[in-house]
Design brief:
By secondary structure, the protein is mainly alpha-helical. It contains 17 helices and five strands. The protein is 72% helix and 5% strand. It starts with a helix and ends with a helix.
Amino acid sequence: MNTALFTQMYKNKDLRRRLLVVIGILAVYSLLSHVPVPVPDTAKLQSFLLKLFQSNPILGFANLFTGGALSNFSILLMGLGPYINASIIIQLLGQVVPQLEALQKEGEAGRNKLNYYTRLLTLPLAIIQSVAMITLARTLSLQIAGVDLIGHPSIYQWVLMIASITGGSMLLMWLGEIITDRGVGNGISILILAGIVSSLPTQLARQASLVQADTTKIFIFAFIAVIIVLMVLFVVLLNEGQRNIPISYARRIAGDSRYGGVDSHLPIRLITAGVIPIIFALAFLSIPGFMGQLFANAKTAWVSHVATWMQTTFQPNKPLYTATYFILVFAFTYFYTTVVFKPDEIAQNLQKQGGFIPGIRPGVETSKYLKKIINRLTLFGALALGFLAVFPFIVESVFKTSNILSIGGTGLLIIVAVIIETLKQIESRALMATYEQY
């Protein structure tokens, strides 16, 4: 990073305003995460959820991405989940619906239309998820605490709770878009980053208190701190890793003018799918645990037995859970890479633009070559991403501690990716500000 560019950034009024917009919205997000959903006894419900999430690593991991709003039963308890799900659905539908596939090829206008459809789909998903979250909170409180902490809401109260949670999710989506349009960086990513980072002070304070209570653990936590630093370095290399495919453009002659003859490159990322495979894997892995909790007290003996087995087997400290997690991440990395990376289209576009890979014939041969490259990169990327996902579980099983699962490899990957991307945008805008002087 060029520090002179950042010095110039602070002198530029527009850049200062954009940074203030980001800071202001993050402050609003922090305040909204403490606004509770209207329930009969908010304090008891929050206390119950906090204990539940501390005892269940998977729920604690979900709470991490909402900045504690889930354990507070805040109006932001769903975070950006509905919007992210809507984005993934629209992207997947773009592979099978010709109209959506055509919009993906229309440039900025097509992306704006797809964003509009994503917002529309977010609303019904938010309503459905809000009903599910309220029902789940009632069921778990009845099973574990023996009391319905939601109470017996009337239709008016149901509408009020659903409207509060849905409105909070839609408001959060709007705040993210404001950051994207009027701030710096991707607003959705920055809000997710804020939710993850907001839990760090609490986690550090908790670990400090554990060390004070038992000084013999100081060496273990020091060693784990070194491991975390190494994980951060690994995540940076994994996030920035890419292979540059050389591209040459044929020289064209039109009259007395010559065009083309330029050498460039096509960057192919090591993990094209990003963190989406881990999100998919966690979504699938959460199903057995939730189903086990819901049907553990079923009257039918075999249903109760199966539910108990699912609940006990699919715990983060069990080998089957860790193995399944790794396999799902590996498989979803390949699946999502095939969705977002299309060698046939890239080969066609290169051929239309007069571009070619040296030593490779344009068209079908270029497509086969790109497929071979992406398959090799995805193999290593999928293995690395799977290792990153399960590594915190391995460390915890070895050291008998739970101090890094709250962040985990997924959290580190998101933090590193968002920070690097935001810094690149800041540097780009700062560089543009320096050019405006000349």
